[in-house]
Amino acid sequence: MSELVIELPSLEEQTEFNLRRWEEVLADPELAKLEYRVETDRHGQLIMSPPPGNDHSFSQSEIYYLLRTLLPEGKAQVEVPISTRNGVRAADVSWTSEKRWEGIFDPRAYREAPDICVEVLSPSNTKSEIAEKKMLYFDAGAKEVWICDGTGKLEFFHEGESVARESSALCAGFPSRLELN
């Protein structure tokens, strides 16, 4: 049995491809009509997910609000397209320091991951999908990746660590559970 070897392009080549492909996706009027969330894989193929429900949207809004309030010296956003080694992936919420913003922002998609990338879990998410996104965000330069479950509980993963912490190093005042009522 032979060993499988997949040769990937350099991160710079993948990023340029991702940005060109994402520009096409953004310009497609038919895709703009869809309610689905659209991402791409490293080949530029579309990945579509069901639209999020109200609980998901509420959690996103709360996280965004808290990031804007607790870290006003940076930029908080929702539905953030990020170029990764495996295509363009969209973080549910992100925060980027002012200093980092200038080097990674591109009107099409971030060239690198923001400092904080947050995934709010939906019923359709699988553990392997979220684990892959977490690895892709760190590989793309994220300092922290946060995972928010359906009950509002957050796990904070720090760059270079595989075990979740109880709090964020970048946003020490962020609660470990959202008030969803």
Could you outline the blueprint of secondary structure elements for this entry?
Blueprint: H1 11-27, H2 29-32, E1 37-40, E2 46-49, H3 54-70, E3 74-84, E4 87-97, H4 98-104, E5 116-120, H5 127-139, E6 144-148, E7 154-158
Parallel strand pairs: 5-6
Antiparallel strand pairs: 1-2, 3-4, 4-5, 6-7
Distance between the termini: 56 Å
Q: Report helical residue fraction.
A: 25-40%
> What quaternary form is this?
single chain
Order of helices and strands: HHEEHEEHEHEE
Strand portion, in percent?
Answer: 15-25%
- Counting DSSP H or I runs of 4 or more residues, the number of helices is 5
Task: Throw out a few tags for this protein.
181 residues, alpha+beta, 5 helices
3D structure, described in words:
Strands 3-4-5-6-7 form a five-stranded mixed beta sheet. The chain has a two-stranded antiparallel sheet with strand order 1-2. 33% of the residues are buried. With 181 residues, the chain is an alpha+beta fold. The protein has helices at residues 11-27, 29-32, 54-70, 98-104, 127-139, and strands at residues 37-40, 46-49, 74-84, 87-97, 116-120, 144-148, 154-158. The longest helix has 17 residues, at 11-27.
Short note summarizing the structure:
This protein has five helices and seven strands.
